[in-house]
């Protein structure tokens, strides 16, 4: 699928050292509505504990892992469930843009504005050097923030809309960290990050 087919041209939101290319209209509105509703009801959601400041607390979101390989982050290993027909279809659509064959996907369900994701990088050794990660969002728009990992400066942010794709590659996961901050009020949102796990 050529980038020229998108009404809104894809844009790299990073100022240097990496690519985070936003496809604001990857999936049409009506199709995104159907996908969102289907994923909410068909996904086997879990809430995992995570260690923060020396204490175990429940993650402020629901998660699920599907595909061929476990996903490991923040000391959590998530064994995968088999691909569903819908997830395979989404994977194939995203692969046409990324020109990469993904073997796993991590789903995050942000139920309201209190659900969030802290600052982190997706740089686990299982993802290899300079990983390609395709992040697809459905549901309510939420702010996605990035900042330089070393200096904590040069912050950029973007609202990830219903049906959008953010394709991160190059040095992005080494130079930049990202987060989904809490907000006072938000409707439910889903985010799917397709990965190549080695």
SSE layout and pairing:
Layout: E1 11-12, E2 19-23, H1 29-42, E3 49-52, E4 55-58, E5 62-67, E6 71-73, E7 76-78, H2 85-98, E8 104-110, E9 117-120, E10 133-139, E11 142-148, E12 156-160, E13 164-169, H3 172-175, E14 176-180, E15 189-195
Antiparallel strand pairs: 1-2, 2-13, 3-4, 5-8, 6-7, 8-15, 9-14, 10-13, 10-15, 11-12, 11-14
Oligomer: single chain
CATH architecture: Sandwich
* CATH-defined topology: Jelly Rolls
In CATH, what is the class?
Mainly Beta
Compressed to H and E, one letter per element, the order equals EEHEEEEEHEEEEEEHEE
What spatial form do the alpha-carbon principal axes imply? Answer: globular
| Percentage beta strand | 35-45%
Poorly predicted residue ranges: none
First and last CA, distance: 26 Å
Biggest sheet details: 7 strands, antiparallel
| Structure summary, number of beta strands | 15
Strand line-up in the sheet with most strands: 1-2-13-10-15-8-5
| Overall number of structural domains | 1
User: Mean pLDDT across all residues, rounded?
Assistant: 95
- Tally of individual helices: 3
How would you classify the helix and strand content by structural class? Answer: alpha+beta
Cα-atom radius of gyration: 16 Å
CATH superfamily, called what? Alpha-ketoglutarate-dependent dioxygenase AlkB-like
Fraction of helical residues: 10-25%
């Amino acid at each position: 699928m050529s980038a020229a087919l998108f009404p809104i041209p894809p844009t790299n939101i990073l100022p240097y050292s990496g690519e985070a290319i936003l496809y604001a209209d990857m999936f049409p509105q009506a199709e995104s509505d159907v996908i969102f509703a289907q994923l909410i009801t068909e996904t086997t959601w879990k809430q995992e504990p995570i260690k923060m400041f020396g204490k175990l607390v429940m993650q402020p979101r629901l998660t699920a892992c599907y595909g061929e390989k476990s996903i490991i982050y923040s000391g959590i290993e998530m064994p995968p469930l088999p691909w569903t027909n819908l997830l395979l279809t989404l994977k194939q659509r995203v692969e046409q843009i990324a020109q990469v064959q993904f073997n796993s996907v991590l789903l995050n369900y942000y139920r309201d504005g209190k659900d969030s994701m802290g600052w982190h990088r997706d740089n686990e050794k299982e993802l290899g050097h300079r990983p390609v990660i395709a992040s697809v969002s459905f549901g309510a728009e939420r702010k996605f923030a990035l900042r330089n990992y070393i200096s904590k400066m040069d912050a950029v942010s973007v609202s990830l809309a219903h049906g959008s794709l953010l394709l991160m590659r190059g040095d992005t996961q080494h130079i930049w960290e990202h987060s989904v901050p809490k907000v006072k009020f938000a409707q439910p949102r889903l985010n799917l990050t397709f990965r190549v796990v080695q």
